[in-house]
Amino acid sequence: MNYQDIENTFKDNVNDIIKLMEFDQIILNVAIKGLEKLQQNLTRLHNIDNPHLLAENTLQLLRSIKEHESLKPRYQVIFNQCVVLLVSIFASSISDLFKKGINDLAVKGDSSELKSEELKISVSQLLEFNGDIKESLGDLIAEKNDLSFQDMKSIGRAFKTYFGFTIEKDVKEITLSWHKQEDM
Question: How far apart are CA 18 and CA 176, in angstroms?
């Protein structure tokens, strides 16, 4: 896997999770648009004006549910789990980038920290590698040092230690909120 593949996978996963976070709104939009079209067809094409045969009451109900976010409490659990999933895919992607970077750095031989790193590896671990061990150095380094990619401090330390750069703290407001989408 190359760096672009890691980035693309991350972006695709984030987009899929965002769709899941907005699932209730998507369903409401589809239902509302479908009923609006039905209502138009019944009134314009078939000249039906009997309120009991039209979808106006159901349309009003769905619009009210959407406007007042009445489904939000029921979908909040899904939304919260999506946030957890976002953190997980971020950690996984950062881990993949770190491991790929370690593998590339080992091949280049530019890191004094990496050159002096000692690894203790069992024969069974050695046998797990079906190819060039250089392609598994990132896994070995991460495992040996018990690196966690679950928090920014650990991520920052790992990247500073092995790649020599500091991840700057950039404080911006990041808000994950219940989205209202008008057009779906």
Answer: 10
Report how far residue 153's alpha carbon sits from residue 161's, in angstroms, rounded to the nearest whole number: 12
Q: Report which residue type is found at 18.
A: I
* Residue 94 CB contacts under 8 Å (≥ 6 apart), including other chains: 149, 155
pLDDT tens track for 119-174: 888 888 777 777 677 778 888 899 888 898 988 889 999 988 888 888 777 766 55
Lookup: tokens for 168? 């700057």
With a CB cutoff of 8 Å and minimum separation 6, the contacts of 10 are 89, 90, 93
Query: CA-CA distance, 116 to 109, in Å (whole number)?
Result: 11
Q: Are 104 and 153 in contact (CB under 8 A)?
A: no
Residue with tokens 């593949």: 5
Half-sphere exposure of 113 (CA within 13 A, CB side): 13
| Tokens read off for 46 | 């078939």
What torsion, rounded to 10 degrees, do the Cα atoms 22, 27, 30, 32 define? Answer: -110
pTM, rounded to two decimals: 0.74
C-alpha distance from residue 87 to each of 84, 90, 94, 120 (Å)? 5, 5, 11, 31
Amino acid symbol at 13: N
